Amino acid sequence: MLTVSDISFTRENPILRNVSFELVQGEILVVLGPSGSGKTSLLRCLNRLESIDAGEIFLNGENIETPPVMELRRKIGLVFQTSALIPGTVKENIGIGPALAGKDFPDTNCHSLLAQVGLVHEHLTRNADALSVGERQRVALAQVLANEPDVLLLDEPTSALDPTAVLTIETLIQSLHRKLNTATVLVTHNLEQAKRFNARTLVLIDGEVFAEGNIHELMESEKSPLLTKFFEGRMD
User: Fold this and answer.
1) Which of 87, 184, 196, 190 is nearest to 145 (CA)?
2) Per-residue pLDDT tens for 164-207?
3) Fewer CB within 10 Å, N- or C-terminus of the chain?
């Protein structure tokens, strides 16, 4: 579904270097790495919030530079680390994507999405500013899902939440993934979270794919001292 081929991205200094991977429908791919390794920049390049300097990215065989950018962002939806909701009600936030695409989005669709992200229909009329951090993150997820994306990008979606809310959102992501069969890229700095997802994992170090494989197999491998230092939290 998603093919990333030797992409590089520079902003004053090189951030991503010759990154390549593939993502199939229904797969969760976890991206790990120390701070400054290029994890968020990678998602921004996949969503065309940043322009790559070299390489190519394909969605279902089509270069992502081909469609209009707003159309691409409906197909490759990005949920940010901190929810970026517009002023207004939950209903207005969930329906903004279809509205910009000129599509009707009836209340029944809103109710269905709210249920999918674990909120009740009474939330529809609530002001987004009055929501808790966890509720805002659920609405941000519903906002992206309203566009029926082919690929879902999650940029540390639980980093601002308390431990209980973290597990709730993780369960929600897993449940939505099983139900929708969407290809998902999850960026996290939380090693325990990566272990709970138990998925194929890319480890980015200095903007390069340093290792790839199942998270538990990577952690048990003793082939790379640098990788061991990363998993043990001993990197400079």
Assistant:
1) 184
2) 888 888 888 898 888 888 899 999 988 899 999 999 999 999 99
3) C
Please list, residue by residue across 105-144, b when 16 or more beta carbons sit within 10 angstroms of its beta carbon and e when fewer do.
beeeebbebbebbbbeeebbeeebeebeebbbbbbbbbbb
Superfamily name and number for 2-231: P-loop containing nucleotide triphosphate hydrolases (3.40.50.300)
Q: Which residues pair with 160 in a beta bridge?
A: none
The separation between the first and the last C-alpha atoms of the chain, rounded to the nearest angstrom, is 36
Rounded-to-integer distance, Cα 173 and Cα 112, Å: 16
14-27 tens-digit pLDDT: 999 999 999 999 99
d(CA 193, CA 186): 10
- The C-alpha atoms of residue 96 and residue 91 are separated, in whole angstroms, by 9
**pTM exceeds 0.85, yes or no:** yes
Provide the token pair at 62.
């089509």
**Taking Cα atoms as reference points, which of 40, 44, 36, 22 lies closest to residue 230?**
36
Residue 99: count other Cβ atoms within 10 Å of its Cβ: 13
Kindly give the residue spans of alpha helices, DSSP state H, lying in the chain: 39-46, 69-75, 90-94, 96-100, 107-116, 133-145, 163-180, 191-197, 215-220, 225-231
- 44, pLDDT greater than 90: yes
Q: Answer yes or no: are the C-beta atoms of 20 and 193 closer than 8 Å.
A: no
